[in-house]
Amino acid sequence: xxxxxxxxxxHGSVWHHRVGGTRHRLQCGGLAxxxxxxxxxxxxxxxxxxxxAGDVAALRLTSRVAIGLGFGWSIVGCALMWWLALPIAEVxxxxxxxxxxxxxxxxxxLVAFVALYQLxxxxxxxxxxxxxxxxxxxxxxxxxxISYWIIGAALCVWFGFALGYSGPGVWAGLALALVIATxxxxxxxxx
Length: 191
What we know:
The protein is an all-alpha fold. It is 83% helix and 0% strand.
């Protein structure tokens, strides 16, 4: 393709390991995200039902159980991915093939990063579901805008480029933005 200069094309000896590792990270992250996302959707329905019925006790119980399940899944998911990062990577790649070793190492390192990402992400998704059930969507949108697009983007640029940490720096910036967003959403829930 003439639109993309050759200097921007990934070079097989270096870049395919990063692409393979990143693709693996996306698959594991998406799978892990499905549980808190589903819990958040269920929380939206149950909290809205309790709020509509005017049942404050059921609303409190439902929201606390849902957020507790979100925290629990985050801890379990983080621990499993952290301890099983390499075996999880070996499900997708043949570990007996020496050509796959760099990709396996990259994938295992990125899965460990996804594992840590789960700790704030699960509770945040469930708390967002609880807030949606309470018809509170404007403040969470503002929280996301500030946390990710203002603070998070600045952190990604700072860690990834100004400090020279490249890809891991960008992921660290995103992780810190997620922690900030989670703390703000949880504060909104408790308020």
